[in-house]
Amino acid sequence: MAVYTLERDQLLKATLAEVWNFISSPENLKTITPDYMGFDILSENPLQEMYEGMIIRYKVSPLLGIKTTWVTEITHIRHQQFFIDEQRIGPYKLWHHQHHIKETPEGILMKDIVHYSPPFGFLGAVANSLMIKSKLNEIFDYRWNKLEEIFPV
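RESULT FIELD:
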């Protein structure tokens, strides 16, 4: 099984509490996801505070407009430092997404680290080269731009 990594850093001009409150709220994921992905939260109480063990269900169209159910679990949280979500059901064989934030003299440094593995072995590796990797970069570019709008310099 091939495992790929996507890493992104972004400096935000906001307080630690502002960034944490935004990124740790499941309902805000829709705001920073491209509209064409048809992202909808299916879980009840998406407004409640995130906690370890929290299961969040979504409907999303990650590729080719095909709707799929995506279920993630919040596996680790350190308040105002990081949280990790892991796919339990969804389009990937493996999805492990770390969200880190830390205060710096220039602002809040946010770092995303995603380890993922497409399904279907060799065919998944080919699909990653042909479209999955570029699609993930496109989604994270969109997020970067939206966060710049939400937390302007």
